Amino acid sequence: MNTIILNSHPIQYLAPLYKYWSENAGNLEVWYCSDESLSSNHDPGFNKKIKWDINLLEGYSYRFFRNYSPIASIHKGFFGLINFGVIKALSKEPKSLIVVHGWGYLTHVLTLFFAWFYGHKVALRGETPNIQEDLKPRFPTLLKHAYLRFLFFFVGTFLYIGKENKKFYIRLGQKQKKFVFAPYCVDNARFQREAGLLLKDEAKTLFGIAPENFTILFCGKYIYKKRPLDLLKAFKLANIANATLVMVGEGELRLEMEAYIRANHLQEQVILTGFINQSDLYKYYRAADVFVMCSGLGETWGLSVNEAMNFGLPLIISDITGCSSDLVKSNGYVYPCGDVSKLASLILRIANNNIEKNTKMSKESLKIIKNYSFEVVVANNKTMTSQC
What we know:
Radius of gyration: 21 Å
Number of helices: 15
Number of domains: 2
Helix content: 25-40%
CATH architecture of the largest domain: 3-Layer(aba) Sandwich
Order of helices and strands: EHEEEEHEHEHEHEHHEHEHEHEHEHEHHH
CATH topology of the largest domain: Rossmann fold
CATH superfamily of the largest domain: Glycogen Phosphorylase B
Distance between the termini: 7 Å
Number of strands: 15
């Protein structure tokens, strides 16, 4: 049975997965509702025009469908994608596994219904972590849950990305027999290969960091969801001698972050990099001694945690981050989101660890990330389609 995946647009994390899938299973076609990510476009999160420097269409079969929306854009909400051509395409396809990524656009809903209507096997891959649902406004959340319970009637298989995502589906009445593990993952092979291109001291030197400096890494947009100011405040509070904080990213909070850095005289210790494209990311991971994600509500997973683990980095992750219950074990620490004092104390703890302790944490990160890989996604898909 062939697999067809519906995505809103080409995504830098997923394109390498689809290439690997095609090379190792060969039964895949990806349907796209928009091509916005293929050219230089304004990204609201980064607050600037960006264009990814990796090929997002290489190595797999794909189709683009015309978007009939009067407000056509992946950034315009539910009615930003209206691709009626998907309905006709589903009617002509032989019986296939149709995987829909999310339910955030009208096209997603149309695809779920008509894939079911035409007799295809329907699978849904969403992101929502259960841990965040009770933090949202109660009445809108109840309405959303009622809507999703209806929508889930058309879904035969739920491809859960991690523990919290599975709990969310259970919360909405889904049964164990409908679940297949399809972990959120990055190109582990690529990042581990890049990890071998530089020694840590060499990477630090690239950015003017003394080799002996304890280096903390943040990698994400400078937006409220990512809570970058929490990390700046924790870094100030920790007050570690010979330490550097590198914040890879860009976004609307940059001016506020710069003001905090100036007010607290941290200009010599904090590096705000601006947007860094895919081909240069490895240099920053390689320079780091610990990776911090301090995100709050809306961080449904946190794929930069996966990236950091491929470099063997110890982790400090907020408890609201979707991946925290999956990826953080003896390789790091989870702390209450927004608790700057606790975050500072954990940074200090890792900074004061002996070499043996941090080496054990590094090995544990590399061990855990093996289960969040392209190999696992494709193997579980093969098992699922063979049973259809």
